[in-house]
Write a structure and sequence with these properties.
Length: 164
């Protein structure tokens, strides 16, 4: 099954009657569009060494109301983690240099409560990921809506844990 992602990249005049097209859902009024976005922007750090994949994730997360920060290497991601407030991280498993699991381990060492979602071509979580990765999603099978919902849920769960 192929998923087509469409995202508004420019402002559409109100007279056009269309505000945003997100995952085949046409949103025609401001109230419905606002309901789809989180009340306060959540920041997601996506780490991917392929520019096209990083660009797609940027469109998906920004269309869903997230603040997006992209990194192409593990070292760049760790620097961003030190200098920016990150709500969750979405990592590619197979990257050159520092792979996603090594990056996730270091991220959790620096910020133990940061939610980490790993995207991989592998169908299941390798043993090394247990206790490090909060969610493991298979790239070829995850729908954009599922990725967004998983990240939102992890951020919400993390925030609820901070309140306790």
């Amino acid at each position: 099954m192929t998923t087509t992602i469409r995202c508004c990249l420019r402002q559409i005049p109100p007279s056009a009657g269309v505000k945003c097209l997100l995952s085949n859902t046409l949103v025609e009024d401001e109230a419905a569009l606002s309901a789809m976005k989180p009340p306060t922007p959540m920041t997601v750090l996506c780490v991917e060494d392929e520019d096209e994949q990083l660009g797609l994730r940027k469109m998906i997360f920004e269309a869903a109301g997230f603040q997006f920060i992209g990194a192409r290497t593990g070292a760049e991601a760790l620097e961003l983690l030190r200098t920016r407030e990150i709500g969750a991280a979405v990592l590619d498993y197979w990257m050159s240099g520092m792979n996603g699991m090594a990056l996730a381990t270091e991220m959790k060492r620096q910020q133990p409560n940061i939610p980490v979602v790993m995207l991989s071509g592998f169908a299941s979580l390798p043993g090394e990921g247990v206790g490090v990765v909060d969610a493991w999603l298979q790239k070829a099978r995850v729908e954009p809506e599922s990725l967004i919902e998983q990240v939102r849920e992890l951020i919400k769960r993390n925030a609820a844990g901070d309140d306790e």
